[in-house]
């Protein structure tokens, strides 16, 4: 057990109302938004490799693939509520951690419907920065990583978000080489989910969650790339995505601001000003070019 103050999530648990069926929480999963051609290339012929199945092949030993339900993440409800609250209070303002939508995550925690890999990763990285739960946080990070690996045949934005947090956890807790390898996997998941493209059919919040998740991946290049082309996770020339919106618009689920700029000029109308998060992406690109 790792003690801490009462969280906002705990105080809201008795009063928060369920979100509408058409709200942001229904759109944050990107599994159903894979383009048909990509779906065919990534997931076709994986029926025999799905979790919970036994793989057989002539001349090869029988391989049992563990089911996603075989691996549970047990975190005390009180500790979970405190760590979620601390994440949004202290980490969410940082560019690399701003991809989660607070009200949606809080609601799903209350409903116990939050993705287990994401929950474990969120609690692990927050506990690391807050100096809490030293005996449990490594187990949470490993549990999240295991769940991501078990679900590789079904790309999910939740698993990508969990993996981004695990990568930061590994890099900041002495596991840099493992974080380096996991970053490559995160880039593949982002490509499978087509996160480097806009998806206008989604709700404003879902679009912004996808943008911010991708830009968080892009920020990893400052950790692992240092201007070296062979270590790049995603080249700027193939990023057809708008820059992040302002936090107030994101939190309040405001209508999309179509004047949000792109990373590279020429992809759309350039706005007269760029928000702080957008400027940080621009600075990251400038730093990359200088390092090259």
UniProtKB/TrEMBL annotation:
Compartment(s): Nucleus
Residue numbers spanned by region Disordered: 1-31
MF terms (GO), sorted A to Z: DNA binding; DNA-binding transcription factor activity, RNA polymerase II-specific; zinc ion binding
InterPro entries tied to this protein: TF_fung, XnlR_reg_dom
Main localization (coarse): nucleus
Keyword tags: Metal-binding, Nucleus, Transcription, Transcription regulation
Record carries keyword RNA-binding: no
GO cellular component terms listed in the entry, alphabetical order: nucleus
Domain of life according to the entry: Eukaryota
Keyword Chaperone set for record: no
Record domain Xylanolytic transcriptional activator regulatory: where: 179-250
Record GO biological process: DNA-templated transcription
Classification via SMART domains: Fungal_trans
Entry-linked PANTHER family: ZN(II)2CYS6 TRANSCRIPTION FACTOR (EUROFUNG), ZN(II)2CYS6 TRANSCRIPTION FACTOR (EUROFUNG)-RELATED
Name of the molecule in the record: Xylanolytic transcriptional activator regulatory domain-containing protein
Source species of the chain: Sporothrix schenckii 1099-18
Lineage of the species this protein comes from: Eukaryota, Fungi, Dikarya, Ascomycota, Pezizomycotina
